[in-house]
Amino acid sequence: MKPKILIIYKSSTGFTQKYAVLLAKRLNCTAVDLKHIKSVSLSDFDTIIFGTRAHANSIDGLKKFRKTLHRYRGTRPDILFVTGAASDAEKEAIDRLWKNNLTIDELAHLPHFYLPAGLCYEKMSFTDKIMMKGLAAMLKSKKDKTKKDFELEKRISSSFDISSEKYIEPIITYISQDK
Ligand SMILES: Cc1cc2nc3c(=O)[nH]c(=O)nc-3n(C[C@H](O)[C@H](O)[C@H](O)COP(=O)(O)O)c2cc1C
Question: So what's the pLDDT on residue 5?
């Protein structure tokens, strides 16, 4: 029998939701907003995929999600995907994200995927806009800026979308091999 998969996502400006919906279509399963998690019976599913965003070098909502999940099964989702403004070429930053946020057990046993997405100032919360303004001001006033600083300054100056359906392929491949 095919495993019953559930995708739970936390999305503030829509990128993670978009990826969750794309994955749900490909995997023929349901994607549910974390806000509505109480309406689903988690114990009915064999595989739980959690999708969220990178937020100031942390994985948004992961700590809380571990606790929620623990009430039903295990302590970690079966698959994790994280969206962000970094491109997939920024291997060091992505690696740091995993090392700083995943436990040793999760690093070894929780399949985790980074999905490039972008930034959307139009849908961003007030607090997030303030945080981005702070980062922009810090970069602007920084002395001896590196090439990376200049690139980041330019990149965060306006909304952009680098999301693509192709980035879900590694997750699809992983699931189809995990039988
Ligand atoms: C305050 C703030 C901090 C962010 N920090 C990071 C980060 O550390 N790394 C990254 O790649 N993207 C970062 N981003 C970009 C978001 O992760 C990206 O826009 C994400 O796809 C948003 O997902 P959502 O649309 O589902 O909310 C940040 C965005 C904001 C607003």
Answer: 95
